Amino acid sequence: MKASFRYIHDSWDTTILTPQWGTVINSFPTVQSTFNGPGLSMLTHLTNTFSPSLLNEFVFSYTTDHITLQNVNANGVSYQRPPDIALGYIFNNGFGDKIPGLVIGGNNQAYGGFGFAVDPGYLPWHHANPTFNFRDDLSKVIGKHTLQMGVQVVLSQRNELNQAVGANTGDLQGILGFSNVGSFYSLGNAFADFLVGPGSFLPNAPNGIKYFQQDSTQRNYYNRYTVTEPYFQDDWRVNPRLTLNLGLRMSLFGLWHEKYNNVYNWVPSAFNKSLAAETTVDGALGYLAVAGSCNSVGQQCTPIPLDLNNLDPRITNGLVRCGVNGVPDGCMQGHFFNPAPRVGFAFDPRGDGKTSIRAGYGMFFHHGTGNEANTGSLEGSAPLVLDMTEDRPASYACIGGAGAGCPDGGAAYPLNVTAIPTKAIWPYVQQWSFSVQRELTKHTVGTIAYVGSKGIHLTTDLQINQLAPVAASQNPFKPGQPLTAAVCDSFDGEHFTLYGTPDPVTGKAPATATVTGNQPDGAPNDPGFVNLEAACYGTPGNSHFPDPNVLRQFAPGMGRIFSLQNVADSSYHALQVTLRRATGPFTLGVAYSYSHSIDDSSDRSDTTLVNSFDLASNRASSNFDQRHLLNISYLYKLDSFVNKLRYWFSDIGYDESASTTTLPEVSSRLGHTLLDGWELSGITTFQSGTPFSVINGASAGGIYGASDAQVATISNSLAPIPAGISVLDNAGVASGLGAGSYPDIIGNPYLHAPYGATNPKSIGPALFNAEAFAAPTGLTFGDAGRNYMNNPHRLNFDVALLKHFKVTEGTTLEFRAEGFNVFNHTQFVVYDPDKGNQANNTISCYGGVNNSAGDPSCLTGSSFLHPIEAHRPRTMQFGLKLAF
User: Is 644 helix (H, G, I), strand (E, B) or coil?
Assistant: First the structure.
């Protein structure tokens, strides 16, 4: 019997240049954060050998970490909210003593063609995850059978202040958004909109604020779950050449649940349609209003008031509290029993011990992290935490109607909510492999293998309150015909006019079709009319388009509904080849994989541009897919090489007339110390670039701030506007999840760009061809699709030189000199998943480069397809390690 105990306590305290894991990805290290993470791990291990054929092992472990994040000002920066700031609010919650986050969006070329952002985020924040783990394993050998059985029990907790999960942002201070695209009152420059306030182009009119989003509060949550997994395994040695592996693991999964039942789920069956019929949205100002109270143009409605102490049920329609009134504490019907079989074999076809054929198959269930389809994603859920967005507030002071004389004072806005399934469906993976391993020579072993896997019921996040996209067969836009500012300008309340390609001589664009809605005879709207209203919302024109929340049909009166569903899947197939040779002082390893990973969602937030009614349209190479991966590793002990050097130079200083030449020996201790114990090792890697998506950033129109008369003059002339091609929500589905479409493909993006490859205003070279992309066809998501391109490949050399000094019989000193990217290859990256979508993968250069004139001017200053960063430069490091 053996018993052991291990205790580890570690801690780190570091400063991170930008707040982590927030809704807004900070562009600059102005607001920083401290990360303090003490951790604790304890483990007790008891092994009992009852007999030579019976062994039992028992393990109990406890682990936890206590993470705290806190905002820190960089030098010369202050994120604290001034006491006299003239800024309104939706919720008067103290704002965490922080100024609002700022998102400067759009396609301003002065900022690289996309924009920038900064936000103090949801900090300060704390998190702890105490986890208890019990495991018992029993092994018994009976004849040709090695039997193993056991059970693992996990009791897990997650205790934390809610952050940016689901519908909420965690931002008590709110987020201010600006954009010169999709913002009616923009001055044409999103940063100018932020600075100027009420615009000089539109006297006495609202400024260019596009939106203000804010959470009402933050709360602590205490999520729990229990997992029990018994298993049985039989390794049956059928004969000396064949062994079979047969096993079964039973995953008995308890539900995630909040200890105090303080989470709420939005459930479609609980959404009261009668209550929804009493609710509408003010078309101009976007607040919740009493149905039937609006005037003839859908504005000036009677608002539904926002009273946090007595929320109107029309605001919280469809929300159900978990763990009360017959609702399970995990918000869903459980699925406790999940059998997972495993089978395999190993076969020596010749019986000589030099060849092995192996194959295996297994199922593996996944209980899910706290950010998947469970109560962990309901942290910060309404009604305990409200998240609301006000579009186009009248002014800074009128945000939330807080200031005197504001048009929508004290009104509620459509609520953003999170939904998880009402029945547990656990994700699982099937894995299989087949390999042949052969001793090729006495010192060389090679393996060739096929490896595959399939992920089923994976988690993804869908915005189910989006509008249904127009069917391709009913789309009024012809293939290649973009949605332009002129189309949006043509809206007269009942009609849109579609325009073709401008005549190269007259400069006029011919009308190609008319899309009609609100027809006097009661006939239904033309297909695409509602989608055009949503797509054109906020664009410059001679009319205000209705707030997209007015157009929602699935859950009227609600905002965005973030529905986490286990409906995604994945597949992986790989050819893997390895070669290992070890002879004398030299060891060489070569490993190559040719693989392809495909999925329709690589993580829960990977569907921001997808049609929620057609998840298959998001299917593409996985975010982490690497088609080719080659690693060459080597280790060479240089003692023999040093001896050869001594032989090569043995004639220096020796008598050539001697009858025999002998290798000079190093007799001194100093000589052995300096010449013995050297090692040279390294890893050379070649890998394909990971995929990324090219995002349609739209092209700002050239008539921002113009009067209705000016707009009419421009529209009537039908002259081509150099900008104003496409919109962010090009499909017109009002998903509200950021950029909403991709461009169309018209060429080979991997050709070198003839225009704009280098220019003094863009950072770095253009790595791909920007001219391969055109504005997407109107009312489509664009045909480029998800993960259409790949980052540049990498070829990297890392080398280490080691020297071992024998200090005493039991003490060794090791000197290490290590070089990473020793040849200093510049290895660029266009897209970094940690930074998300940036100007480097967002195209907003329509109207010039894709026209017949081929004007490259809009590429000047653009970051599109230029590097966002490079992998590490050459780095040298030196170290000493004493082993005693």
Answer: helix
